[in-house]
Amino acid sequence: PLKVGVLISGRGSNLQALIEACRDPATNARIVLVLSNKADAGGLKRAAEAGIPTAVVDHKAYGDRAGFDAELDRRLKGAGVGLVCLAGFMRILTDGFIAAWRDRMINIHPSLLPAYRGLDTHARALADGVKLAGCTVHYVRPELDTGPIIVQAAVPVAAGDTPDSLAARVLAAEHRAYPLALRLIATGRARVKGETVRLQGEILPETFIM
Ligand code: GAR
Questions:
Q1: Where is the site Raises pKa of active site His (predicted)?
Q2: How many Cα atoms within 13 Å fall on the side-chain side of residue 58?
Q3: What interface predicted TM-score (ipTM) does this complex get?
Q4: What is this structure's pTM?
Q5: Does the C-beta of 11 come closer than 6 Å to ligand 1?
Q6: Which residues form the catalytic set?
Q7: How do residues 68-87 score in pLDDT, each as one tens digit?
């Protein structure tokens, strides 16, 4: 199985979805390490309950981003990680770290990229009156919230939605999309080639979530 390291900063509901997916041998992946930059991240408890090693690497303890990223790199390598999953990890990573993990690091973002990169995606989508929202799992490139797209899931925007109600609907889609992306990679059915991902075989119905 593919050895996975998950980076979190908070609640860890996407981490939980990945933990549950890895219980299925068909996923062909095992989470070997969870790293958080915050000691009070709820996801640390979820990992511990699942018997997964955790560590806190507090960004405030490092003089610069490069020092923080070097420690993340050291821990991930020490655990033999082959794929890094960013799951609500709210730190900007250096170009050097991203280059070192190129095509071996993926992220989940709460919008249908390339729309709504950055923060406050749901409030901005509602202000624009869009009728579909969603999430994207993508390989990480140096420019924030860009990179080859592996899986997207779309959900409808409802009349009367608030940023919170829309976020909850998108989050449910995230919990399906992230495990799917992991499974596609870990079973060799998604391959990144340059700036796009090729999905092998038939179109998977799970990639269209409505
Ligand atoms: C998720 O909605 C994720 O897409 C988002 O943070 C949330 C984390 O929730 N990520 C970003 O905004 C990255 N810039 P979780 O901790 O429950 O998985």
A1: 145
A2: 4
A3: 0.99
A4: 0.97
A5: yes
A6: 109
A7: 999 999 999 999 999 999 99
